[in-house]
Amino acid sequence: MLVCARIGAVHSVVFAGFSAESLSQRIIDCKPKVVITCNAVKRGPKIIHLKDIVDAALPESA
Asked: Which SUPFAM superfamilies match (predicted)?
């Protein structure tokens, strides 16, 4: 996010708790050229696999 702001790129930060369907809808609405994510994050004792969510969302938005 900071790199995007520094170079002046338009970006949108998405909450890590979104489902693949919700993320897909946001991708359809924004029509991005690039989606950047990390593999996983830890939220309390639970690990959220962000890459898997993004991978599931991308075919739905194509």
From this structure: Acetyl-CoA synthetase-like (SSF56801)
Average pLDDT in the chain? 91
HEC string for the chain: CHHHHHHCCCCCCCCCCCCHHHHHHHHHHHCCCCCCCCCCEEECCEEECHHHHHHHHHHHHC
Domain residues for the domain of 5 are: 1-57
Residue 52 makes CB contacts below 8 A (sequence gap 6+) with none
Q: Does residue 62 sit within a domain?
A: no
Buried b (16+ CB within 10 A) or exposed e, 47-59: eeebeebbeebee
Q: What pTM does this model have?
A: 0.80
Count structural domains, the chain: 1
